[in-house]
């Protein structure tokens, strides 16, 4: 059973992923680390603490990075049109959710300590900017040889991005961090828009799950409504299940078609934030991908089977 650190920026789809991790019987959630992204890190940490309480999760919440790995990189505006001003669909969050959010940037040390204390046992599921992971690697490169694996929701390889034609939001939010993570000597699986855009949760289905899954899924249903409205330009009355898709890969990688190869991230210009794969089966002249480890990229998915697993897991008590 993998021990999981969930690196997150809640975030509507982050909330569903967190509940999936909590309720799946083959996952031991040992920590929740927060990062800026869908909102400022103060807000994403407050949201993680609120969800921890609402979902009855024991794992600690540890506040992470509030700025990019390259501190000179200009910050992107918060995606309020997607996740709302408060990051959770602008639902009313009780006043008692204003819990102490800890010191900034403690997450990197928590990741280091937890991996060192559990060599070979920790899986990191990262569904926001890769800043905490890059900071941890910079402080303690040895953790790359001690971690079980890293599963990332981010990037796009054979489909367009979602913040520019070239770039997906999590990667575009901190490209230097993403490049550091993709090229580190640890085992990475990248679950990007190539597959997450095929995993769909309809409004009607989420309501049915809320009726079966107790107050936790009812909360999930409530905070997802404006997110579903946002996706109306792509799919009618439904949302894409980005972050939960990465959690499914952790326990059922057989539901994904994958390729391997070295990955680099463009860090400037027109393609800033683009993830570029050098496939293992292709030969190229010497270049910027050389001497880095091959990683795994999901390129297709058994979407119906993934969503069936999501449904079954969310309604577990």
TrEMBL record:
One of its GO terms (biological process) is purine nucleoside catabolic process. SUPFAM superfamilies: Nucleoside hydrolase. The keyword Hydrolase applies. One of its GO terms (molecular function) is purine nucleosidase activity. It comes from the Bacteria. The keyword Hydrolase applies. One of its GO terms (cellular component) is cytosol. It holds the Pfam family IU_nuc_hydro. Residues 4-307 form the Inosine/uridine-preferring nucleoside hydrolase domain. Keywords: Glycosidase, Hydrolase. This is Nucleoside hydrolase.
């Amino acid at each position: 059973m993998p021990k999981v650190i969930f690196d997150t920026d809640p975030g509507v789809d982050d909330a569903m992923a967190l509940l999936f991790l909590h309720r799946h019987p083959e996952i031991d959630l040992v920590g929740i680390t927060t990062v800026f992204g869908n909102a400022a890190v103060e807000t994403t940490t407050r949201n993680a603490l609120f969800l921890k309480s609402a979902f009855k999760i024991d794992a600690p919440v540890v506040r992470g990075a509030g700025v990019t790995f390259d501190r000179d990189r200009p910050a992107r505006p918060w995606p309020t049109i997607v996740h709302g001003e408060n990051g959770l669909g602008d639902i009313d969050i009780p006043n008692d959710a204003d819990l102490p959010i800890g010191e900034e940037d403690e997450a990197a040390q928590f990741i280091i300590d937890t991996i060192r204390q559990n060599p070979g046992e920790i899986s990191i599921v990262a569904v926001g900017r890769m800043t905490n992971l890059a900071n941890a690697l910079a402080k303690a490169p040895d953790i790359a040889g001690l971690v079980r694996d890293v599963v990332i929701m981010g990037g796009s390889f054979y489909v367009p991005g979602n913040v520019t034609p070239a770039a997906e939001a999590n990667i575009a939010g901190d490209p230097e961090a993403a490049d550091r993570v993709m090229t580190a000597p640890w085992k990475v699986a990248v679950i990007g828009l190539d597959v997450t855009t095929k995993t769909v949760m309809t409004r009607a289905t989420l309501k049915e799950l809320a009726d079966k899954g107790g107050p936790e899924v009812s909360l999930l249903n409530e905070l997802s409504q404006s997110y579903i409205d946002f996706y109306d330009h792509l799919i009618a009355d439904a949302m894409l299940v980005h972050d939960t898709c990465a959690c499914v890969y952790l326990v059922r990688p057989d539901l994904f078609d994958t390729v391997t190869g070295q990955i680099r991230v463009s860090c400037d210009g027109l393609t800033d934030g683009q993830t570029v794969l050098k496939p293992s089966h292709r030969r190229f002249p010497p270049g910027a991908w050389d001497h880095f480890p091959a990683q795994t990229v999901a390129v297709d998915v058994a979407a119906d089977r993934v969503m069936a697993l999501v449904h079954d897991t969310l309604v577990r008590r």
